[in-house]
Amino acid sequence: MKDMIKVEKLTKKYGSHTAVDEINLSVKRGTVFGLLGANGAGKTTTIECILGTKKADHGTVSIMGMDPHKQRKKIFQKVGVQFQEAAYQDKITVSELCEFTASLYKSTTDFMELLSEFGISDKLKSPVKELSGGQRQRLFIVLALIPKPEVVFLDELTTGLDARSRRDVWKILADLKEMGLTIFLTSHFMDEVEVLCDQICILKRGKIVFYGTVAEAIRQSPYEKFEDVYLWFTDEEGQNDENL
């Protein structure tokens, strides 16, 4: 399978602090890749460097064989991005936000179909600010899928969703993966990671402490439950101040 994302020796520093330290990873077409780690482990910086919104100090990054700095416009048309915190006009409605997003791309999918698939088509005329947290989260996933992306970046994709909605989203993403979509996600829900991810990378203080499959992570630890395995790799058991 073709590498859709390839990162080699990625390093990013902020003054004397090394946020990302010589990270290597690759993501194959039609797979789901999970980037895991505690808050401050370097996940956001890694994603920003991959997308080209921040410039790495060292190393190379390619998305679909393209340089995210030199070929940013081409990449923009083929990549969908969903983040927890999204900026939008105060009174904009769901319909207006979807229409605006669609206007940015040459080729798009029918956002009404996506809204229906994610269970929020009845909110078409509602102001985005009046949606519940879970409804907003689903909307932001819809926005990321509007450009018919070949690669989509999903940040904490099911935060705020109830158990049924989370499973519905998992099913939709599994179907999209079967159609060839490459998914790069972050999550603090280990059951989600187990269900969705073909490969995972666990970061700790900017360094990779594990890279492989969930099954391999379990085999390399003294635990059988993946949540315990994750905590073991990241040493989060004793860190009460971290948000998991």
TrEMBL record:
Q: Which keywords does the record carry?
A: ATP-binding, Nucleotide-binding, Transport
A Pfam family found in this protein is: ABC_tran
Concerning InterPro entries, the annotation shows: AAA+_ATPase, ABC_transporter-like_ATP-bd, ABC_transporter-like_CS, ABC_transporter_ATP-binding, P-loop_NTPase
The organism's superkingdom is given as Bacteria
User: Is Glycoprotein among this UniProt entry's keywords?
Assistant: no
Alphabetical list of SMART domains matching this protein: AAA
- The ABC transporter domain sits at 5-230
Question: Which GO-annotated molecular functions does the record name?
Answer: ATP binding; ATP hydrolysis activity
CDD domains the UniProt entry points to: ABC_DR_subfamily_A
Keyword Nucleotide-binding annotated: yes
Q: Per the similarity annotation, which family is this?
A: Belongs to the ABC transporter superfamily.
Q: What is this protein called?
A: ABC transporter ATP-binding protein
Tell me the organism.
Answer: Emergencia timonensis
